[in-house]
């Protein structure tokens, strides 16, 4: 599935920290256009990326590019466990960093992440102080801290490249590229009217041939994929932004409350109200709908 990731408009990237009492909810086998840098403090687990797996025994530090399928990385072995996940869009590299020629080492490191970089134990241990600082910093401090991490990893990091190149067995390179463009289109336009005609034109298909292509690549109808992605966004908006259900509905791209409620129950197993009531009862004070 395509994971829904919200990068706030007043930030260039997203950083989340999880511990034993606040574990990251599993998304299973997933993909997203954003780059991802993950620090797992300790414990054992498996880094499952694409067709390859790497077990770890004392935490892990992994950096992977966008649109690379992978499973969750963290574990729940120890009470003092900590998982820090940093995600940023391609624009962070191609628009923001390009104006600083001094950051060419960082840009090269980010570009190499398309091969999936697994850093060694020494690098992981040495960079811990950087990662644990995030929880005490404001947005400006977080950006400076991220650049410090990338600077350290680009100059001192020792790593294994998991892949020479990333490929999806059984598909042509052009098909993979078109699928990635489809993911990016949905990721950037989920809150608007998603046009099959527009995305078809961008990729050089007729609407019917695009729908056949998408079904072949994902074993899912395009409209079902969009609805599932939007529901994922709605869940994230409810969770992270303390948002009312009706506001989350509009911001995730739905306009019909009854249709939104049906799709929410289809993909979450409960109605929006029941979901909020179970997880965030304080939000119900904001809602009398759905």
Helix-strand category: alpha+beta
The N- and C-terminal alpha carbons lie at a distance of 26 Å
H/E element order: EEEEEEHHEHHHEHHHHHHH
Alpha-carbon Rg, integer: 20 Å
Whole-number mean pLDDT: 85
| Strand arrangement across the biggest beta sheet | 1-6-2-5-7-8
Tell me the number of strands.
8
Put simply, the count of helices is 12
Low-confidence stretches: none
Largest sheet: 6 strands, antiparallel
Count of distinct structural domains: 2
**How much helical structure, as a percent, in the residues?**
40-55%
Classified by CATH, the class of the largest domain is Mainly Beta
CATH topology of the largest domain: Jelly Rolls
- What proportion strand? 5-15%
CATH architecture heading of the largest domain: Sandwich
Could you explain the architecture of this structure?
By secondary structure, the protein is of the alpha+beta class. It has two domains: 14-161, Jelly Rolls (Sandwich); 173-286, Arc Repressor Mutant, subunit A. It is built from twelve helices and eight strands. It has helices at 90-96, 104-112, 121-126, 128-132, 139-156, 173-189, 196-203, 207-218, 222-240, 245-251, 257-268, 272-279, and strands spanning 14-19, 35-40, 45-49, 52-56, 60-64, 82-88, 117-119, 159-161. The strands form two sheets. It has a six-stranded antiparallel β-sheet. The protein has a two-stranded antiparallel ribbon with strand order 3-4. The longest helix is centred in the C-terminal third of the chain and has 19 residues, at 222-240. The radius of gyration is 20 Å and the shape is globular. It starts with 13 loop residues before the first strand and ends in an 11-residue tail after the last helix. The model has no long low-confidence stretch (mean pLDDT 85). This is HTH araC/xylS-type domain-containing protein. Keywords: DNA-binding, Transcription, Transcription regulation.
């Amino acid at each position: 599935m395509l994971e829904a990731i919200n990068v706030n408009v007043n930030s260039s990237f997203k950083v989340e920290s999880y511990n034993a009492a606040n574990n990251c909810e599993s998304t299973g086998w997933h993909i997203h256009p954003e780059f991802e840098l993950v620090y797992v403090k300790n414990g054992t687990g498996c880094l499952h990326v694409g067709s390859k797996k790497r077990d770890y025994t004392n935490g892990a530090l992994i950096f992977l590019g966008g649109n690379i399928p992978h499973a969750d990385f963290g574990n729940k072995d120890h009470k003092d466990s900590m998982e820090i996940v940093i995600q940023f869009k391609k624009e962070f590299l191609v628009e923001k960093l390009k104006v600083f020629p001094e950051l060419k080492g960082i840009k090269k490191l980010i570009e190499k992440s398309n091969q999936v970089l697994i850093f060694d134990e020494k690098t992981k241990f040495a960079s811990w102080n950087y990662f644990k600082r995030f929880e005490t910093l404001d947005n400006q401090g977080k950006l400076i801290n991220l650049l410090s991490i990338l600077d350290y990893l680009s100059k001192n990091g020792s790593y294994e490249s998991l892949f020479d190149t990333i490929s999806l067995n059984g598909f042509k390179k052009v098909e993979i590229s078109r699928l990635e463009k489809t993911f990016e289109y949905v990721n950037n336009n989920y809150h608007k009217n998603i046009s099959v005609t527009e995305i078809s034109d961008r990729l050089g298909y007729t609407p019917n041939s695009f729908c056949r292509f998408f079904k072949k690549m994902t074993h899912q109808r395009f409209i079902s994929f969009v609805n599932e992605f939007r529901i994922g966004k709605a869940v994230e908006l409810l969770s992270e932004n303390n948002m009312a259900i009706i506001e989350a509905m509009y911001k995730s791209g739905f306009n019909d409350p009854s249709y939104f409620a049906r799709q929410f129950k289809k993909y979450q197993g409960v109605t929006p109200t029941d979901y909020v009531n179970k997880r965030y009862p304080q939000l119900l004070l904001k809602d009398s709908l759905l």
